[in-house]
Amino acid sequence: MELMQLYDNMFNQSIGQISRGDIEIDRQIDDDSDRRRGLTLLIRPNDEIKARVEAFQDELIKIDGGQYYQPPSDQHVTALSIISCYEGFDLNEIQIRDYEDIISQSLNDIPSTMLKFKGITASREAVLIQGFPMGEGLKILRDRLRSNFRSSDLQQSIDSRYRLATAHMTSVRFRRELRSPAKFSGILQDYRAADFGVMNIKSLELVYNDWYQNSNIVKTLRRFTI
């Protein structure tokens, strides 16, 4: 219920602004010189969910194809951002095996967890697919990871930007002014409670990534099965 309230608050605060074209444009999304990199543990949606998200995006593209639509290959839920993206981060600075070991320990006996994707929410910067963990598995994993990494001397910046509590997928980022703000926001309202599917979390990926989880840049360092 708290998670639904959070998503509701986001939507209610931003939908009026979006309908007026009052958005915040990401000026770095098309910048080839962007060198922000980080380390993330993430969850990939299944093919059925990807297809439903893509169908939603197609409705928005008909109205405004100029925004950034997260490709199916890049769709993800952040389980935890271990090293938040910053300019100059280099994999050679860390021992990946040490990170893998902590993640493996944290995954021991984690309860099975389903993720339900239902509805969309938005901010002035982006459109998000709402994710809802079914069960305590994801929360337990995040808490273990926080505790285990903070007890280590490894480089990490967990929760440095904000404490992650949601299980959303970013679907659209605003890269330019909206072509038709009222129509765009109308589609968002139409999909406010749309069903995008349910999945069982069977694996997680530790990745070296840019800010946008672009598959051309992302390196999968290890897959963990649950």
TrEMBL record:
InterPro entries: Cyclic_Pdiesterase. SUPFAM superfamilies: LigT-like. It comes from the Bacteria. The lineage of its organism: Bacteria, Pseudomonadati, Bacteroidota, Sphingobacteriia, Sphingobacteriales. This is Mutarotase.
